[in-house]
Amino acid sequence: SAAEKGGYDYFMLKEIAEQPKAVADTLLGRVDASGSLTLDEVRIPPNVLREADKVVIVACGTAFHAGLIAKYAIEHWTRIPCEVELASEFRYRDPILDPQTLVIAISQSGETMDTLMALRHAREQGSRVLAICNTNGSTIPRESDAVLYTHAGPEVAVASTKAFLTQLVACYLVALYLGQVRGTKWGDEIRDVVRELSKIAGEVERVLETMGPVRELARGLAHKNTVLFLGRHVGYPVALEGALKLKELAYMHAEGFAAGELKHGPIALIEEDLPVVVVVPSPRGRSVLHDKIVSNIQEIRARGARTIVIAEEGDEAVVPYADHLVRVPATPTLLQPLVATVPLQVFACELATARGNEVDQPRNLAKSVTVE
Ligand code: AGP
Q1: Which atom of ligand 1 is the closest one to the Cα of 369?
Q2: At the N or C end, where does the chain have fewer CB atoms within 10 A?
Q3: 223-277 pLDDT tens trace
Q4: Strand ranges, E, within the chain
């Protein structure tokens, strides 16, 4: 009913709008006044976390994209090698697992069969499993050694939005917590990032306030057949997520690429007026990457692409090459997906509407996939 949708036309729109609160709720009570993390609920003994020599993340779909981003954070802040694998592929390749492996299973519903079978396989090999889940008391957390709940609230729309942002927050918390428990040379950076995380709800709110032009752009592209998405570093999984949203909602051919891979094949796809969304990393910090992506934008534009550039406020280098420029607030590099994903959600939702598709219930899809 309209009341359930809180005045929005679709649950998806309501859930996109709820993201600032969802993100804040996932942080709530998990950071103390001194900026230290208190994840007492992660009932895996600290010595087990200290002795872990590998992290393996298993998940599907959007949750898998959260896992891809988590890898960058976990490896950077903890120096523990981290693998991310599609849950549906995991157990069939006889993965190397032992009691020193910490497995993280990410799932909004907690009922995804592929993810459940992957975690069962991991536990059979003696690995500890930490679930990151949005649904209290669901099967995946019940069968895990510990759970960190994302407090996104119920997500009704099939296309995952607020669950994704809160999965990211939970992943950052786990990465930072592992760093804290194990001791890391990044102590100061961890404190800074915790501080930045507490500001992120406000930043997401600011992004939401500026989405008018993104909706207008989407309506103008409703007749297109293909949209490509490019990113680097954590922007690469953001590109994959943008493409997935467009497939499931707009039923368009959409593909995400690592921008550095363009020259290894995908650049052949670029033709006159092809919309290409580019997620640009912050010009601060990893500026080498930034420069490289700016030249990628130049290359595709020279071949006729219509460039839709998502870039940090104040990044002037991209301006000459952007046919459409979407600004997001400056954040530490690793946190950028929390703001950069939001315009892509709005873009896909608006395209679905413009194409006359069912936003909350896309064809052929179920909210939780309980078969393998
Ligand atoms: C996301 O928009 C999708 N509907 C889908 O990829 C989903 O993320 C995936 O099926 C995993 O679901 P889960 O998080 O409930 O395990």
Answers
A1: 10
A2: N
A3: 999 999 999 999 999 999 999 999 999 999 999 999 999 999 999 999 999 999 9
A4: 54-59, 82-86, 101-107, 128-133, 146-149, 226-231, 253-258, 275-279, 306-312, 324-328
Q: How far is the CA of 28 from the centre of ligand 1 (A)?
A: 24
> Which atom of ligand 1 is found nearest the CA of 365?
4
Asked whether 115 lines ligand 1 (CB < 6 A), one says yes
Buried b / exposed e over 285-298, threshold 16 CB at 10 Å, is: eeeebbeebbebbe
Residues tagged active-site: 367
- Check if the beta carbon of residue 17 is closer than 8 Å to that of residue 365: no
**Residue for token pair 């949209």:** 227
Ligand 1 pocket test, candidate residues 88, 133, 160, 363, most atoms within 8 A of CB? 160
Q: What is the pLDDT of residue 256?
A: 98
As for the ipTM of the complex, it is: 0.98
d(CA 64, CA 237): 9
Share of the chain above pLDDT 90, in %: 82
CB count, 10 Å around CB of 247?
Answer: 16
Place of tokens 């896309």: 362
Which amino acid residue places its CA nearest to atom 6 of ligand 1?
61
| Model pLDDT for residues 34-83, shown as the tens digit of each residue | 888 888 888 888 888 999 999 999 999 999 999 999 999 999 999 999 99
